[in-house]
Amino acid sequence: MDRVATARPEEISDTDRQQERRPQDDGRLRLHKKRAIIVEDELFVAWHIESLLQDAEVEVCAIAANGEEAIEKVNDLMPDLVIMDINLGDGMDGVEAAERIRELSDAKIVFVTANGDRKTVARVAETVPGAPVVAKPTSAAILRAAIGAPQ
Amino acid sequence: MRLPDAADNLVSAGSHASTPSSPPTQRKKPAPLRQLAATSARQDMAPDDPVKLALDTALDAVVVMGPDGAIAEWNAIAEEIFGWPRAEVAGRQLADVIIPARFRNDHYAGLTRFHATGEGPLLRKRIETTALRRGGEEFPVELSISPLVRGGETCFVGFLRDISERHQSEDLLRTEARRATLLHQLTSFAAQSASVEEALRQCLAAVCEMIGWPLGHALLPTGQEQGELVSSVWHGPPGAFAVFREISDATRFSPGVGLPGEIWQKREPVWIADVQRSGNFPRARSGHEIGIGAAFGFPIKSGDQVIAVLEFFHPAVREPDDSILLTARALGDQVGRVLERKQDLERQHDLLAELNHRVKNMLAVVVGMATQTARTAETIGAFQESFTGRVMSLSRTYSALTSSEWHRIGLGELLAGVIAPYADAPSERVSLSGPLVALAPKMAIALSIVVHELATNARKFGGLASAGGRLDIAWNRADTASGPAFELIWREFRPGVLEAPEKTRFGLRLVETSVRHELRGTAERSFEADGVRHRFVIPYPGN
């Protein structure tokens, strides 16, 4: 690394982020950035994905740590994109959460998971047809391709 | 081959008729052989006649038929195997006595043809066919017919051997061989199949085929001691027995309950000839027509453990078959050993998958650490120090978790391990006090990241930064309305107080967001006159 990264551009906490208004609500005309929710229980991973999304011009409007919270936030914030981990500790897993989210939103769902085995991929294909599955750890290029952002 | 075929194909008798060598005799002069044909059976030979002696000491039944098809001679063995005394059959048509009715016309046609053409291709050959006993029972015989010509007339000498026993043992051998093959096939099927479920499916199919029963069902125990048996896979014609299958799938069998439960408890095969009359077949009492008559099943065992229970169903009532039960027992043991290896392999496979998952997850965390550390570090040296510190701390927690076999580790142990690299003379400068709080792996990892950030800040700016500083960490159970929790107080004392440094911002943000996000807890921070104080309340599930 020959270049030192700059400090975080913004220090918005999770709670602050939830209070942001949706673009169509703020009364001003501007280019509609895609808005995403990250569902990921590991904070470092969530922040990494957040950086990758921001670099791809996607606004992260919330980070949820489990399935229940994800459903609630999708319901509140109606994002365009949900980045979903599968193994979320106790309670419902990412596939179940995604199935419920499909019922209440048209958001594109992209799984980012360390459970990249065939069984899991088959389960995703059956439960949430069409949702891409990206293996962890992921890179900017792979994530951009999966969310359909320009490379 | 059948007797009438042979008769149908009698060969030209124009050739030789071998003369049996006369046994040495001290008796009266031998009767000339030609007498045989000429002698009517009604005229008994002398008891010491060598031909009669030869006939009566022969180990096979010997039957002589005259040119007209009548019985001319009939020895002792013929009496024995056909059940007719010589006196009662002599002179009667052979066909009426020993040829099953359905073959008699062929017999006469063959005889007529022989007399007309002299042809009989099966003469002087050993053939197998079916004969009739006095009681009407048919049985397999080995037969050879030799023509005997004397004075222009042809008689036929038939040598017959009852081969029922040989047939039975051949049948038995065939069955045994088929079962041995089946056992072998099943063992290798089971070994090659991709999963235990697939192996069970193979087993069901093979057993159904072997015993000719249409429906097979495998159940798996949920646990060894207080578990239940639950439906796993079926074999049978699609759509058939739908009601019964539905009832079975919805039933969970405790040890001793129903056919599967009984097999599980006894650890051996069980046969129910008629499920409607059985006292232990609850599925027959559902009020629905289930279409099942007999049922039978056996356990698949490894040592004393029942790995699976297989049950089979027939629409009609069937009495127990010992040989099926015997085969089932052997099959259960044999397949059990293979399945046990299979289950071990599956467990191993699962472990590898789990390992892969953990490694990938950890790498994702490390990549996240690297990018987040890079965003906040001002120099490469600072990046290296922070990043290495974070990775090393994570690594120590992984080691501690591995020592505990990834069960739980104590909060005190975790704190001491994470803080140690940042405290000189830790026993004097750091105090840890609190009851045993055993942390599950996921919590331990999240908390170790939090504690590591607190410790590096303490080392750089707080209680561990200079001589005379101190760190007190205390924890206690602090259950909340929503469940069990513990409270962790992190108190740093530092002589010559400073205000909260700007540089701690990322570390503190990480600490507080981690507590909220990953640990679902609360975080409070205050700067007192003599140092910083953190208070965390963290839910503590499963305790």
How are the elements arranged and paired?
The complex is a heterodimer of chains A (151) and B (543).
Chain A: H1 14-18, E1 34-39, H2 43-55, E2 58-64, H3 67-77, E3 81-84, H4 94-104, E4 108-113, H5 118-127, E5 133-135, H6 140-147
Parallel strand pairs in A: 1-2, 1-3, 3-4, 4-5
Chain B: H1 3-8, H2 34-38, H3 50-57, E1 61-65, E2 71-74, H4 76-82, H5 86-89, H6 94-98, H7 104-117, E3 127-132, E4 138-150, E5 153-162, H8 164-192, H9 196-211, E6 215-221, E7 229-235, H10 242-250, H11 258-266, E8 270-272, E9 294-302, E10 305-314, H12 322-376, H13 380-403, E11 409-410, H14 411-419, H15 426-429, E12 430-433, E13 438-439, H16 441-461, E14 470-477, E15 485-493, H17 505-517, E16 522-528, E17 531-539
Parallel strand pairs in B: 12-14
Antiparallel strand pairs in B: 1-2, 1-5, 3-4, 4-5, 6-7, 6-10, 8-9, 9-10, 11-13, 14-15, 15-17, 16-17
Count of β-strands of chain B: 17
Oligomeric composition of the shown chains: heterodimer
Report the structural category of chain B.
alpha+beta
Proportion of helical residues of chain A? 25-40%
Strand residue percentage of chain B = 15-25%
Order of helices and strands of chain A: HEHEHEHEHEH
Bulk shape of chain A: globular
Low-confidence stretches of chain A: 1-24
- Percentage of residues in strands of chain A: 15-25%
Largest interface: A-B, 32 and 38 residues
Main β-sheet of chain B: number of strands, strand sense, barrel status? 5 strands, antiparallel
Strand order of the largest sheet of chain B: 2-1-5-4-3
Largest sheet of chain A: 5 strands, parallel
**Uncertain segments of chain B:** 1-43
Question: What's the β-strand tally of chain A?
Answer: 5
End-to-end CA span of chain A: 22 Å
Mean pLDDT of chain B: 83
What is the gyration radius of chain B calculated from CA atoms? 46 Å
Instruction: Please identify the structural class of chain A as seen in this structure.
Output: alpha/beta
Mean residue pLDDT of chain A: 82
